[in-house]
Amino acid sequence: METFIETKYFGNNQSAIVSPLNTELLNADSEKFRPIDFLIGGYGSCMMNVMDKIAGESGFSLSEARTEISYEPLPDMSRLDQINITCYIYKEDYSDEQKQVLETAATKMCPVGNSLNPEIERTYHFIYGK
């Protein structure tokens, strides 16, 4: 199924995104919130949703969690060179097997992550109980 995302450019570094699931404009003022921030934020959101989905299929659920993602572009700014992801999972009493399920889901099964250029170096850190 093909999905369309509409992007409007208003000039002067101002643009907005309209999702088919949300009629409210998501504004991107490139001086305050750059379009790359949408990509990185979407990556973190997608990653946690996939982790919870796969956890549910494995008989448990993802507790409250958050990601912090930093990135470095190539020197010529043509694309991202490196992405560093730290995933804070507030529950700490997952078994080693459950942690492996969560971490595999995050690193191997996220559609946004899998759509990125494979030359982008990625590091993952998972912190439980924070």
UniProtKB/TrEMBL annotation:
InterPro entries: KH_dom-like_a/b (IPR015946), OsmC/Ohr_fam (IPR003718), OsmC/Ohrsf (IPR036102). It comes from the Bacteria. It comes from Chryseobacterium pennipullorum. This is OsmC-like protein. Pfam families: OsmC. SUPFAM superfamilies: OsmC-like.
